[in-house]
Design the sequence.
RNA sequence: GGUCCCGUAGCUCAACUGGAUAGAGCAACUGACUUCUAAUCAGUAGGUUCCAGGUUCGAAUCCUGGCGGGAUCGCCA
């Protein structure tokens, strides 16, 4: 039989012991080809089950026609002289439970300290280029709450993938090719007239928001009164360009305040008139996926003004979509889908994997986009689309809605000014992307209990505080990382110390899993859990003075404990960096 | 009506992609502040994982059918 180590993370002790167990299995010379894909080694939920639980016997038993527990016993015997392992037990239906030695746990602390900012980095993405497209809000106004969740999620996912070894491009698709930018231009033109002292009326269908007032002012400065006498035909393209740029400046500034910096802004308009759309469409045409046809009306709910029209259609049903999709309107112009196909055609040439972050209102668009990517590529699924669900805002116990139409919407800027970027980011990442999120201003402002971001930051600050304080109590004590990394750690033997080490040692595994699943919220939950272990250890020192980090009469033990908590701080800091949240040195 | 997402403790959510006795926080109750920073901790109590079948050593998780909530449904983007 053959087994292979999982590609990826050499710092992940669970991957390490999985390989150890499979090597023991291999050494048993069992007959036949054995499939081990389902074998996992993971931390057991119940601490009484040891440190590493492995299901190998249950997975393999049937293949080799043995009873799971018998097989487990045989493997356990092979593992008994491994110095890293104190005991191997067979439990339940055939679980192999490993208890690891204190020395092994202690070695994990030095490993974390040596790796430092790289602790937890994985290699699952090494050599792979991934393009993460997120935000991509229409350039018609400032970003609001809905965009914020997508921005935070996409940005954390991008950082996570970077940490997992990918070559990441953060990209924003500017929808500057459709009629909404014409509407923007007309709306800005009104503000321009207003800036010249004219009375204006914002008619239905234009953007009423007063964020366009300064744009009108700038237009006046830039164009003087030269546009006033022109026909719309003349000024429209000029104003469209100017206003779109102004909106993108606004959006870029909003994103910067949230800590989001894009690598690439890709303009939809740049696809028109350059042959790129035609090129992408002919790529589909060459596969026989483009045809002229008439769509059936939607089942059940038929639009009032429905009438059959012949359109140019993409045969997306070939790749799992429910109906074929129009790429041209009945008047022959491209639909939104056409440039989007071209855009993804372009992205596929620049990256090995694509990830799009969409709002929930685009859920109906997922199948056709994935179909297009499969059709344009080699038929494999290189696009993953993550939907972020809606954000509901609560204040004083009441929900309030936003409406772009009335101009009375809660912007990203409002959010940051009220609660700060760190809180916004962390709160939005303590939820799975596909679950709706209630954002409660009152709780976000509350700097305590209900607010996990402070809990995690406080753990980090506490450690920093101990590291500052130690040299005051023990004169001449060195607390720099290289000293701590080389420290004698044999004094770390208490259960709550070992529990914290075990939690720290889980970090690389969580990175790998979160990155594979494209789920940054796992990082947030892990950090919360890790912070809990730290607070627990700290508070154990309130009742039992012998457990305090700083022992004035024992420099060796103090150094060992500082090494432990410093390793914890490094882990928290590495995790927070992925989420884009500041690890505080001090919180008063 | 079609499609996608969700349904887990009183509330807000996890559950390592199929693992062992389903876990945290809030709210409730008991206890710990002359603090290595109480923005904290230790403990008690709280469950038919929406319902009914199926798949297997094993299901909150996978498949089928319901129920309930949200999003969306050619010529907007």
Sequence:
């Amino acid at each position: 039989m053959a087994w292979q180590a999982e590609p990826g993370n050499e710092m992940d002790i669970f991957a390490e012991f999985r390989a150890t167990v499979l090597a023991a299995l291999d050494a048993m010379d069992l007959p036949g080809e054995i499939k081990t894909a389902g074998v996992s080694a993971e931390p057991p939920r119940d601490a009484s089950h040891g440190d590493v639980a492995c299901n190998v016997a249950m997975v393999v038993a049937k293949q080799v026609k043995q009873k799971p527990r018998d097989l487990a016993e045989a493997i356990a015997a092979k593992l008994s002289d491994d110095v890293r392992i104190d005991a191997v037990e067979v439990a339940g239906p055939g679980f192999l439970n490993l208890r690891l030695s204190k020395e092994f746990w202690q070695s994990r602390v030095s490993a974390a300290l040596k790796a430092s900012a790289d602790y937890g980095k994985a290699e699952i993405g090494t050599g792979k280029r991934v393009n993460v497209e997120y935000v991509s809000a229409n350039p018609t106004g400032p970003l609001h709450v809905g965009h914020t969740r997508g921005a935070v999620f996409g940005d954390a996912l991008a950082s996570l993938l970077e940490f997992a070894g990918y070559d990441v491009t953060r990209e924003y698709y500017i929808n500057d090719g459709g009629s909404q930018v014409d509407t923007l231009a007309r709306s800005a033109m009104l503000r321009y007239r207003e800036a010249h002292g004219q009375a204006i009326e914002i008619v239905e269908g234009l953007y009423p928001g007063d964020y366009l007032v300064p744009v009108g002012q700038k237009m006046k400065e830039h164009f003087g009164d030269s546009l006033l006498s022109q026909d719309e035909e003349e000024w429209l393209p000029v104003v469209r360009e100017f206003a779109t740029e102004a909106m993108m400046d606004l959006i870029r500034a909003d994103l910067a305040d949230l800590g989001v910096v894009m690598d690439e802004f890709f303009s939809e308009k740049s696809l028109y008139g350059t042959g790129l759309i035609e090129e992408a469409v002919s790529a589909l045409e060459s596969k026989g996926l483009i045809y002229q046809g008439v769509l059936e009306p939607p089942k059940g709910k038929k639009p009032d003004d429905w009438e059959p029209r012949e359109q140019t259609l993409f045969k997306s049903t070939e790749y799992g979509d429910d109906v074929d999709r129009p790429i041209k309107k009945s008047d022959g112009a491209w639909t939104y889908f056409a440039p989007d196909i071209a855009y993804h055609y372009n992205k596929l040439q620049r990256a090995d994997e694509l990830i799009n972050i969409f709002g929930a209102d685009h859920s109906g668009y997922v199948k056709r986009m994935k179909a297009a990517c499969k059709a344009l590529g080699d038929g494999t699924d290189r696009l993953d689309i993550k939907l972020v669900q809606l954000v509901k805002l609560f204040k004083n116990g009441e929900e309030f809605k936003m409406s772009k139409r009335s101009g009375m919407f809660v912007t990203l800027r409002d959010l940051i000014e009220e609660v700060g970027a760190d809180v916004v980011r962390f709160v939005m990442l303590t939820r799975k992307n596909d679950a709706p999120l209630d954002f409660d201003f009152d709780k976000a402002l509350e700097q305590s209990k209900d607010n996990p971001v402070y809990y995690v930051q406080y753990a980090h600050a506490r450690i920093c505080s101990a590291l500052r304080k130690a040299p005051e109590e023990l004169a001449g004590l060195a607390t720099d990382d290289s000293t701590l990394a080389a420290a004698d750690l044999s004094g770390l033997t208490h259960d709550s110390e070992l529990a914290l080490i075990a939690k720290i040692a889980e970090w690389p595994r969580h990175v790998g899993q979160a990155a594979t699943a494209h789920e940054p919220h796992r990082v947030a939950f892990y950090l919360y859990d890790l912070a809990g272990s730290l607070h627990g250890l700290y508070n154990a020192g309130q009742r039992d003075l012998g457990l305090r980090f700083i022992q004035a009469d024992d420099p060796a033990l103090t150094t060992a404990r500082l090494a432990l908590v410093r390793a914890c701080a490094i882990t928290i800091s590495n995790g927070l960096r992925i989420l884009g949240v500041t690890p505080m040195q001090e919180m008063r």
Q: What stands out?
A: The radius of gyration of chain A is 29 Å. Confidence is low (pLDDT under 50) at residues 1-8, 403-407 of chain A.
